[in-house]
Design a protein that fits this description.
The chain is mostly beta strands. It is 0% helix and 78% strand.
């Protein structure tokens, strides 16, 4: 679940000499899974329901903590974690003849990552008479990746080259949920008594959610129709979120010159491919609903601070990107809504949200030498989404009902970046 390390280094003030304290923590977790339920080249005839269901869940919690304290020349602490989930979940009916009541082909994939890294480093009242300078360094690094779109994988619910004779409903549903929560802290203090002193705190966060979610009815076996007495629902949905919280702070004071820096880098990406489709099929049902939904959200809160009796610099850089491709389609098919008032609905809904707060503050106190302070915060936020709903090269019949084709996209970017120095 986690890793930790603590060290302490001291020096004899009479003998002098070098002294250092160094601590490091590393946590690496990789989870790979493939979950598949299928009916392949089979004839199934029952009076009850037929369920083909594939479901997978992945959960990673990683904690990496380190601390170092020294009365000598150097204190360094570093914490790193790397978390990877690769999960493919597939439910499919292929080249088969299915007769029953309700027919459900469902695939669900739910993955969560929680990562925490902290590094504390301090040099206090250095007694090293031979040291011209003292340094304290702390860094925290977190990498999180959730992916299911390698090698034609994903969260897939597919009925392909098959016949369906259902007395009830036909439901083909694919659902993906991916959540990443990351917290990084680096705190560094250097209160050395003599010589030049420096304190450096760094945080780096890299988070990626890249997923494919498809619900598809495609083709037919032996040119037979898909005959459903109830309703047909073909639905694909993805909910992905990344929450990134980081702080890097440093303080340095000495009887001579001192320098402090607090810096952070955040890189957050959500890339999704969501598709709901009826293709190359002849389908008869009371109502037909083809829908694709995507909801992606990135929240990034990054703060850096530095204070020194000399030079102080604080900087934060946040990059946030969403690319969501959402498609709902009836293609090269004949679709008939047979019920009185029966409808055919094709809808694609896309929502992407980026909220970024980036701040940096530096305070430089006048000491024995010159003093300069620099505080800078940058935030780059991009949404690059595609939303498509359509009926193409098809015949759609809803004699007493409605045919609705809707594509709806809603992108929101809220950002505040502030940098200051004294």
């Amino acid at each position: 679940m986690g890793a930790g390390a603590v060290t302490y280094g001291s020096v004899d003030s009479e003998k002098g000499g070098g002294s250092a304290a160094m601590a490091g923590a590393l946590a690496v977790k990789v989870m790979a899974q493939r979950t598949e339920a299928f009916i392949d080249e089979t004839t199934v005839t029952v009076t009850g329901d037929i369920d083909v269901e594939s479901s997978a869940r992945g959960n990673i919690i990683a904690v990496a903590l380190s601390g170092a304290a020294s009365t000598g020349a150097l204190s360094a602490a570093g914490s790193i974690f790397v978390n990877v989930i690769s999960s493919n979940t597939i439910a499919r009916v292929n080249d088969s003849a299915i007769t029953g009541n309700d027919v459900h082909v469902t695939s669900t994939n739910d993955n969560d990552i929680l990562g925490v890294a902290g590094a504390l480093s301090t040099v206090q009242d250095s007694q090293n008479a031979n040291a011209d300078s003292t340094s304290a360094v702390g860094f925290s690094v977190g990498v999180n990746v959730i992916s299911n779109d390698l090698r034609d994988g994903g969260t897939l619910a597919i009925v392909e080259d098959s016949t369906i004779d259902a007395a009830g409903d036909l439901v083909v549903n694919a659902d993906t949920e991916s959540n990443v929560l990351i917290g990084l802290l680096s705190a560094v203090v250097n209160f050395s008594g003599t010589g030049a002193s420096s304190a450096i705190a760094i945080t780096i966060g890299l988070n990626v959610a890249s997923t494919r979610t498809h619900a598809i009815v495609r083709g037919r076996k032996d040119d037979e129709d898909l005959d459903v007495d109830g309703n047909v629902t073909v639905h694909a949905e993805d909910d992905s979120s990344i929450k990134n919280f980081t702080f890097a702070g440093s303080v340095a004071f000495s009887s001579s010159s001192s320098n402090a820096a607090g810096a952070g880098l955040g890189f957050n990406v959500i890339a999704t491919d969501i598709k709901a489709e009826i293709a190359d099929a002849t389908l008869l049902a009371q109502d037909v609903d083809v829908s694709a939904v995507s909801d992606g959200e990135i929240t990034a809160l990054m703060v850096g601070a530095a204070g020194a009796e000399g030079n102080a610099g604080a900087g934060q850089l946040s990059f946030n990107y969403t690319q969501q491709e959402v498609s709902a389609l009836i293609d090269n098919s004949t679709v008939t809504a047979s019920a009185a008032g029966g409808d055919v609905d094709v809808t694609a809904t896309n929502s992407s949200t980026i909220r970024a707060l980036t701040g940096a503050a530096a305070i430089a106190f006048t000491g024995s030498g010159t003093s300069d302070g620099i505080g800078a915060a940058f935030s780059f936020n991009i949404t690059n989404d595609t939303t498509e709903a359509g009926i193409d090269a098809s015949e759609v019949i809803a004699t007493d009902g409605h045919v609705t084709v809707i594509a709806d996209s809603d992108a929101t970017v809220e950002t505040i970046s502030a940098g200051g120095a004294l």
